[in-house]
Amino acid sequence: MTEIPENPEVPEVPEEGSEAETVTETVTKETPVPAEEETAAPAEEETAAPAEEETAAPAEEETEAPSPESPEVSLEGLTEGVEEPEVLIDPIGRLENPPEGTFLWGTGRRKNARARVRIRPGEGNIVINGKPMADYFTRPMDQDQVLAPLRTLSVQKKVDVWVNAEGGGFTGQSGAVRMGLGRALIALYPDSHDVLRQSGHLTRDPRMVERKKFGRHGARRGHQWGKR
C-alpha cells in the first residue's frame, strides 16, 4: 500500500489579479518604444532648424543694402550709374527779366550780312524776317549756327527770338544771327559772358571773300592755255 503524505503539495493556480499585473507590465514595457520616437523627432527638428537658419541668413545679408549713414560704408557704390545733374547758367545766374513790351537787343555781322536780334523770356520760338527758322534756313548747318548759343546755355525752350537779317547769303546771315544772339543773351544772363566767349559766340568770323586779281579769272584762277 502507498503511503499518503500528510501535507500534499497543491499546484499554485494563478489568480486573476496576477494576470492583469503581467499584462500591464508587458504594456508598460512596450509603450516606451513610441516614447523614444517622440523624443527623437524633436531632436531631429532641433538639428534641422539651425541648418535652415544658416542657409537663410546669407540670403538676407545679400539683399540688405548698406545704409549710407554708417561710417564704414562708402558712397562710391551707391553713386555708380547715377548721372550727375548738369550745371546750367540759367538756374544759378542772374536773370535780367525785361518789363512787358520791351526786349533785349544784340547785333551780329559776318561777311556782308548783318542781323539785329531781339529776345525775351518765352517758349523757344525763333522768327527770322517774318518766317520760322526752319522755313528761312533750310540747311541743317545754318540752323545749327543759329541754335549754337542757346544750346551752350541750355535755354532752347526758355527764350523767344526775333531776327531782322539783311545782306550776304544764307551762310553769312546765319553767322551774323549767331553773333547777335550771343550778345543778346549776355544782356539776359549777365553771368554767361565767359561761357559764351569761350564757345566763340561773341567773336566775329573775319573770313571774307578774296578779291579778284588782274590777269586772273577770279581770285586765283588762271587762264586756260589752248594750242589753237
Intertermini distance:
188 Å
Mean pLDDT: 76
Q: How do the strands of the widest beta sheet line up side by side? A: 1-2-5-3-4
Named CATH topology of the domain at 96-199: Ribosomal Protein S5, domain 2
Helix content: 40-55%
Q: What class do helices, strands and sheet pairing give?
A: alpha+beta
Q: What gross morphology would you assign?
A: elongated
CATH class membership of the domain at 96-199:
Alpha Beta
Q: How would you characterize the largest beta sheet?
A: 5 strands, mixed
Q: Radius of gyration over alpha carbons? A: 51 Å
How much of the residues is beta strand, in percent? 5-15%
Low-pLDDT residue intervals, each spanning 5 or more residues: 26-51, 55-59, 68-76
Q: Spell out the helices and strands N to C.
A: HHHHEEEEHHEHH
Q: If helices are DSSP runs of H or I spanning 4 or more residues, what is the number of helices?
A: 8
Q: Architecture of the domain at 96-199, according to CATH?
A: 2-Layer Sandwich
